[in-house]
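Subject: Interface between my chains keeps coming out wrong

I've been trying for a while to get a sensible model of this assembly. When I model each chain on its own everything looks fine, but I need the whole thing in one frame so I can look at the contacts. Pasting all components below, labels as-is. Any help appreciated, I'm running out of ideas.
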Amino acid sequence: GAVVSQHPSRVICKSGTSVKIECRSLDFQATTMFWYRQFPKQSLMLMATSNEGSKATYEQGVEKDKFLINHASLTLSTLTVTSAHPEDSSFYICSATRTSGNSYNEQFFGPGTRLTVL
Amino acid sequence: AQTVTQSQPEMSVQEAETVTLSCTYDTSESDYYLFWYKQPPSRQMILVIRQEAYKQQNATENRFSVNFQKAAKSFSLKISDSQLGDAAMYFCAYRRDPYSGAGSYQLTFGKGTKLSVIP
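Reply #2:
Try treating it as a single job with all components included. I did that and got this:
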C-alpha cells in the first residue's frame, strides 16, 4: 500500500510564530496533495489542493497568506501556518494521490499533525 | 456543489451483530465515486470501501458492504459481525469523476457517524 507521512505529529508553538508541516509520499509519486483541517469531533474540511510545480488552489474562506502551501516535488508538500494564533489550533491532515493515469486515483492520508498555539 | 449528509451522529452495535450507517448525497453529475472512510482514535483515515456510480453492483469488502441507490442518492454502509476494532468515526465521502468534468480528485465528506461497539 501507499504510505503518506506527516511531520511533526504534534507541535506546540507560541502565538505569532510560524509552523511548517511536511507531508511526504514515501513510496509513490503524487502530483496532487490535499490539506485538510479537522476540529474536534467534526469532519475534515478541505483547505487547499496542491499540485506539484504550480500554485495551490485554496478553498473559499481559507487565507492563502496565512496558510502557505508549497508542493516543490512529487513527494513533498508543506503547509506553513504563518503568525499562528490560538484559533489556528487544530488537527491538520494531508492526503496524496498517485499519478497512475486512470480515473480512480485513491487518496492516501497522512496520520495528521496536531497543532496547538499557546 | 455536492453535499454529503450523514444523519446519524452516533450509533452503537453489539459485538458480532450487524449495523447500517446511512449516507445521502446531492449531485447533478452522473459519474462519480462514493467512499466510506474509517477514522479510529489514532485519527488515521482508512479507506473502508468505494463504489463507482456507473456500477450497479454493490461493493463488498469482507464484512463491509454498501447499499448504493443511485436514483435515491443513498449510500449506506453495512458492517456485519461487528468487532471491537470497528469502533471509530465513519465518514461518507463523494468525489466527482475527474475525467467527466473539471478534473479534481477532491473529496467532500459528511459530518461523520461515531460507531461504538458494545462487548
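Reply #3:
Confirming on my end. The interface with chain B takes residues 32, 34, 38, 42-44, 46, 49, 91, 93, 95, 97, 103-107, 109, 111-112 of chain A (CB under 8 Å).
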